[in-house]
Amino acid sequence: MFRMHAFAAAVSLLLISFAGSTEAANPLGIAFKYVTNVPLYGKPTGMLIAGRCNRNDPAFQAARQKGAEVLAYINPVARPDHFVCALDTKFYMNDIGQVPLWPYPTYGQRSPWPNTRMTDIRAGSDWSDWVVRYVEGLMREGKVDGVFLDAVGIRPWSSLAEWNSWPQSEKNAFAAGNVDLVRRLDARRRAIKPDFIIVANNVWEAGTMKALDGERYIDGVALEHPKPLSPWHVNYAARPFGNLGHRRVLVIANTRADAQAWAKVPGVTHVSDQTSAQYKNPNPPAVSFQALHDR
């Protein structure tokens, strides 16, 4: 009971401290399937995340021409069990059956999400090499402004992954592989296209597990549906992340009011009010567009 009262008090103090602040973050729209409302984000400082199958839709290029940043969704940590679309299969080595899988406790046993298998994301793996080459291709192609790396971070969070049962050596291998991946992606973008954006949809610490080196190689993270003004997430949103000058910390809230509250939190750069069920296309922007001076 004391913890509940303490948490409520902390949230109340945060609400009071941010109440007088103006919205400093910009609109984020998730468009994993359809482009409905995508044109509403076609302004400088707007951001869109295109899905695994639709990023070549002309609506995204039209939004970019008007100033929006478009990130391409990819999931280096999980391979679907079945065909999704041709563009998705291209990411997965042009044949999902060829993707090397996580070898522990037995090859291909781990599943981080329903209908998926965990990939062999260990440092220096053939799969990690492929992901780096694929993203390098996106940098050179110039049709997106960056990548949204789903699930890349300290650990998988789905209960299906059974993280708590992993031996420490396996946990360490997963974290080290994720750090190595973003390190290599950062090195390639510094050589090819320094303004290319890298955002991870995960965090880099969980309890006593920390892989904070990963933060220096990315522009920021997405905090997906945190509790309203959760003190831990408020603190995490203020992390510096990479040093290339285009820091991006995204908060995906469950309601418009929550998104507007997160927009006032120091360090948050973009907010969305989409629930998981609404990821097919964005809602109208939850906040107004604010000036950014880092591009």
From TrEMBL:
Species of the source: Steroidobacter agaridevorans
Signal peptide from the UniProt entry: 1-24
Keyword terms of this UniProt record: Signal
Residue ranges that the Swiss-Prot or TrEMBL entry lists as coiled coil: none
UniProt xrefs under Gene3D superfamilies: Aldolase class I (3.20.20.70)
Protein name, UniProt field: Glycoside-hydrolase family GH114 TIM-barrel domain-containing protein
The keyword Phosphoprotein is annotated on this UniProt entry: no
Region span, Disordered: 273-295
